[in-house]
Amino acid sequence: MKGPCREYRPGRWRIRVWHKGERFETRRTKRGEILEGQIQAHKTWVQITQEIEDKIFDPAEWGTDKPFLLKNAFSIFQDAKQCGPEWKYHRGIDFRTHVEPEIGNMDIREVRAVHLNELHGKLIKKGLSEKTIKNVLALLKSVFKFHLITNPGFPKVDVPEKEIEWLTLEEQEIVMGYLEEEDLPIFRFMQITMCRAGEASALQREDVDWQHGIVMIRRSMGLKRRVIPYTKNKKVRLIPISAFGEWTHILRPLEVTPFIFSRHGQPYHRQRLERAWMPANIKAREEHGVKIIHVKNAFRHSGASQLINAGVSLKDVSTMLGHSDTRITEKIYAHIQPETAWRHRGTITELKKVEGK
Asked: Per residue in 98-111, pLDDT tens?
């Protein structure tokens, strides 16, 4: 039985035929040459089909490729992916933990929808969240796309939209009133700039240009407490020093280190920021009823939500957050409508006061 002759990646061709009820596949000629062109592939396909019709076809005489294991395909994908070491580290754990034990030893070209559905079912049985399952399958889908393997049919996973938690400007000030004085500058910086915790931690003296009046956010602090020479979206954000108003002094480091924000000679990192923030947040909840919230939501999401509720356009908020596309901002904050400002009148009042200053 004849089969297709197709280009499975640029400059590489494969031939599939069915012989005596079994599928035979080759990417080489009978002499072992790699099929690198359409003419060569077609001639080989004609030769194979002719041998089948003449009943002299012997698969053993043809060079067959070694299995291309899925785990090897992922390793190649991971090495070639131009992402930070943290992304590679965590995605590697996801693959080795959830995918490799199930289908890692399969030839990636032999993976079918039934195998992916079985994997999906096992991930559900493990008790993983829908978001984690979606991330695992999306990672696997990227591997197939990278190697130009036809999509076998990935199961669809619907993740319910998570409501963004945020604080009003008044609530932020209440919590910050319980922070230790030494920790206050970096939190004030995040409040004004709405930058990520890692970006604030990695800010260095050379990133503040007093002559031109700008602050450059261009690097981040990794989970392993190492400075990553780029931000999440690999873009530099420029913030005017004039935006800091009466808080301009926080840009002048108090200690002799390369970093703007440090304590006892050591730069901040995400865990340290959480340890400084959480006790203050707990005290604010006990005495004022302020909700418990992580540092990420307390400043970046809160700042964006405050602006949107005050009537600032999504496009302007997207620019301030440094999003590469306004659709990202819309996806995260579209459910926040200006009408909700009536429930947070203090937010608008305080924002107008700040704008007035």
From this structure: 999 999 999 887 88
